[in-house]
Structures are given as C-alpha cells and as structure tokens.
C-alpha cells in the first residue's frame, strides 16, 4: 500500500488541479453535497396556512447557507443567517415553510425593496438546476417543442403588496382567466425553460392555454410583528424598520394539479422530486434585481414525499405477522376440537329408558 501512496498523491493533486483550472475558466461548477435533502413527512391536520410558524416547531428543518445563485462563493454568503426549509404533506397538499433571519425591511408597493422568495421544481427529465431548465434556445426560439424536457416549475412570492398573515396565490379571478397570475399579492405560478424563457402558467410563446391555474397559496410573517386579530393594508409597514428578527414564508400546493401542458411539477407519495429555493433581500436598502438572488444550493435538492410511516411499521415485520396468524389458526383449531368434545359429552344420550306418554 505504501508503495502506491506517492502515485495516489500525484493523482489527487492532478484532480485538484483540474477542478481549480475549471473554476478559473469561468465555467459553471458545482460540488453539491449528496447528503442534503428536504423531507416532507406525512402529517395530516398539522399546519394552518397563515404565515405563523408555531405549528411547525416539531417538524425537522433542513438548514442551508444562502450563496449567490449565479456565483456561489462562500465569501458572498447572505450575512443575515442560514435558511431553514421545512416541508410536510397531508396526503393531498404539500406544505413548505421557509425561515430566514433578516432585519425588517418593507416598502409598500415596491417588491424589489422587500425580501422575496421563490421555489423551483424540476418538471422535465432534462431540466437542470443551472439556467432554470437549461434549454439552449433563445427568447425568440424557445417553444414547448424546441425546449421539450427542460421545463421547470416556479412559485415566486413578492410581498410588496401582500399583507402579512393574509393568504395570496391562486384566486378565482386570475384562475378564471386561466393563468398562473396573482393580481392581489404577487404569489405567482410560473414555468420556465431557461431564465429568458419564463412565463406565467397558461401563457407562452406558442399561444395561451386557458386551462392553466395558479395552484399555489401562501402567506408571510416577520417575528417583529405583534400578533393581533389581523393586519389590513393601512397598517403598512406593519412594524418599524431595522428590527432584528426572522422572516417566515409559508406555502401549500396540491400534490397533483390539473396541468396537462407540462407547466407544473407533479408530486407522488413515496417518491422523490427535485427542488430549489431562492431568496432576494434588499441589502442596505438597495432594491434587488432579478438575477441577484441567493440560492440554497448550486444544484437540485432532493425532496422526499414520504409514505405514512405508521403504516410502514405496522406492515413491515411481515414474517412475524404470518407467524402470528398461523398460531391463531392453530389456537382456533384446538378450541374447535375442545368445543366439539365438550358438546359431545354434554349432549351424549344417557341410557334413560323410553317412556311413552300414555303410560304416565
Ligand atoms: C396571451 O395572453 C396574454 C395576456 O393575457 C396576451 O397579452 C396575449 O395577447 C395572449 N396571446 C395570444 C396568442 O392570445
């Protein structure tokens, strides 16, 4: 073994050399930790979709550093803290909680001067995390045909017009028009093939499809707020700026949607999907721009939609289960024999002589 050590060292150095030269060339590189994942356990009747995170306290979080999405280097990490991502499902809907520390900033009506979040999911098998699906076509040539297989599903929530604790997303008016928009709170349902070919569900370069819907709902909150019966628009900015605290963003969506044009990710219980989370923050009061966001990872993060684990523990010890039923069968056979025997003894005709009625 010792003899091979120098060889291994040389090989190792060569590999390191390759990696660093790759980075220097300015090409995209990502070393994703294979351990990371988000687990959506089955916990029915647990979550109220109101932006308040108290009901999530027993749910385990996955913690992520927030690095710039386009240039993921540790020295440019979001200074406010890590992002905690929690998820669960109730058999019908999947729920997400994003929790990130940040001083309170809010500019009513100015989305870019408020924090903002997005979720992204893989739809098409060829859709890469990098470049939002990674279709090579340009704005004037991307279509559902030329970019087939590169579809990603995006939910984007910009809170400049969203009252904390109130529900936004899919609403009867925008869904009535058959698209993924949200004119009230800008919690929109979007699909993309790459960053330049990004559309509201139902709208697109090859025509509109009025069957599309905004399938998301969500709410936001900041820990500096005083909880009371409910904010209204006039309460804006809801708290004084600059207070330390935590932002909460809470979302839900049906596991399956009625999409039939490949614009929504579809989740399956017991299977894994691929997701990512983006975060925008107006650092030093400067408005953010679209590509200036942080991301939880430089590649997809697996999202496991778990089976009901209580059902699993009941059915998994299959062999001992069948032993028990064989034993029960044996017991019932024995008791049948015993009861036949007892019955026979009780009912056995005794040798009482026959006495005809007329002789009495
Ligand atoms: C699709 O819908 C958008 C927004 O409502 C509209 O501007 C556009 O003209 C529509 N396109 C077609 C081809 O109907």
Automatic annotation (TrEMBL):
Top-level division of the source organism's lineage: Eukaryota
Protein's name in the database: Heme binding
Species of the source: Melia azedarach (Chinaberry tree)
